[in-house]
Design goal:
With 129 residues, the protein is α+β, with helices and mostly antiparallel strands. The chain contains five helices and four strands. A four-stranded antiparallel β-sheet has the order 1-2-3-4.
Length: 129
């Protein structure tokens, strides 16, 4: 009698494991935007350029004549205590958007829309408008 119980439990575990698809696109977008906020706050320019920004955004930043990390360092060097609040996220086949409210010490809050694209299996920020 013990064998059918074990077989039943194994079958249930396999079914549950097969049905698990991981985080949704919306959850992945939210994670990328959260990572962006943390990396900005920590002034982790390497993470921004290597893991958070889409390659085309990194290329656009390089067009100013500086490596991405240096361009980000110069644009964020005077920003103190930045924070991002994530609002509405929209995911479509061609990309995603995330409405964010950002603030920093001594600066007026800003409401912006980040555009994201899928790069391999991850969502990356492609525009900081």
């Amino acid at each position: 009698m013990r064998l059918p119980v074990v077989a039943g439990l194994l079958a249930c575990a396999l079914l549950l494991g097969c049905g698990e698809s991981g985080p949704s696109d919306e959850q992945q977008v939210r994670q990328t935007v959260s990572d962006f906020g943390r990396a900005t706050s920590a002034k982790d320019y390497q993470a921004l350029c290597d893991r958070i920004f889409a390659p085309q955004l990194v290329d656009e930043l390089k067009q100013v004549g500086l490596p991405c990390e240096v361009a980000m360092q110069q644009s964020l060097e005077d920003v103190e205590d930045p924070s991002i609040t994530i609002g509405r996220i929209t995911v479509a086949e061609q990309g995603a958007t995330a409405e964010v409210r950002s603030s920093a010490t001594g600066q007026a809050p800003s409401e912006d829309t980040l555009e994201l694209v899928r790069v391999d299996e991850a969502w990356r920020i492609s525009s900081l408008d």
